[in-house]
Design brief:
The protein is 74% helix and 0% strand. With 221 residues, the protein is an all-alpha fold.
Length: 221
């Protein structure tokens, strides 16, 4: 879905809508898992954080030509969020992270191979750029990052983890400024402040909730 959306809209739009995944995950788990229920403060934090991302990337629905790309990216975010919900609420949460990763990559590899055959997108040119890209996507993105993510899912609340990755779009914009010379506007700085404020509110909401549930855990007893 991301690949389909990239040619139709900007990378800022793609990043923004893709990283709505934590919102879908947190909302879904709020109703499915008792321990994942969010407080009003956490809800406020997530809303503020997403508002900050919107300000940082200056997204707008005025450009109708990018609507299809935005919808693809939003669907990708929804799919990512649902996958985290499935892992958290099923027996996959009790399996070693390597097993979860193996299942996901195996199934998606077969599905994408079939999709490529049906859409006649089987042309593959071997050159240095393609090989480096493939190595990066395979080793860094598909293996190391997902392995770390599935490991974290076993030990931490998804709502807490999800809010942290909201920083990714901002980091992407910053990387673009450093590596591609893109100009940083005042909206980026304003959005960064809102995002950090939202993350702080979410973390405070989670810690306050845990304190009310088990106050002795904070007194060393």
């Amino acid at each position: 879905m991301v690949a389909l959306g990239i040619p139709k809209t900007s990378t800022g739009h793609i990043t923004l809508f893709l990283y709505t995944a934590p919102l879908f995950t947190a909302v879904g788990l709020h109703f499915l898992v008792r321990d994942e229920r969010m407080t009003r403060l956490q809800w406020s934090g997530i809303i503020v954080a997403f508002a900050g991302i919107a300000v940082a990337v200056q997204f707008s629905f005025a450009d109708r030509s990018a609507t299809a790309g935005d919808l693809f990216a939003l669907a990708a975010g929804l799919s990512w969020g649902i996958s985290s919900i499935i892992i958290r609420t099923s027996q996959l949460s009790t399996l070693p992270p390597a097993c979860t990763l193996f299942y996901q990559l195996t199934i998606t590899s077969l599905m994408l191979a079939l999709a490529a055959c049906f859409t006649h997108e089987t042309r593959f040119i071997l050159n240095a750029a393609v090989l480096l890209s493939l190595a990066y996507q395979t080793i860094i993105v598909s293996v190391i990052s997902y392995l770390c993510w599935f490991t974290l899912l076993r030990y931490y609340h998804v709502s807490s983890l999800g809010t942290l990755i909201l920083l990714t779009p901002v980091m992407g914009i910053a990387a673009g400024a450093v590596s591609l010379g893109e100009t940083l506007q005042s909206s980026f700085l304003t959005g960064s402040v809102l995002i950090l404020s939202g993350l702080m509110l979410t973390r405070l909401g989670r810690e306050n909730h845990r304190l009310r549930e088990s106050p002795t855990s904070y007194t060393g007893k």
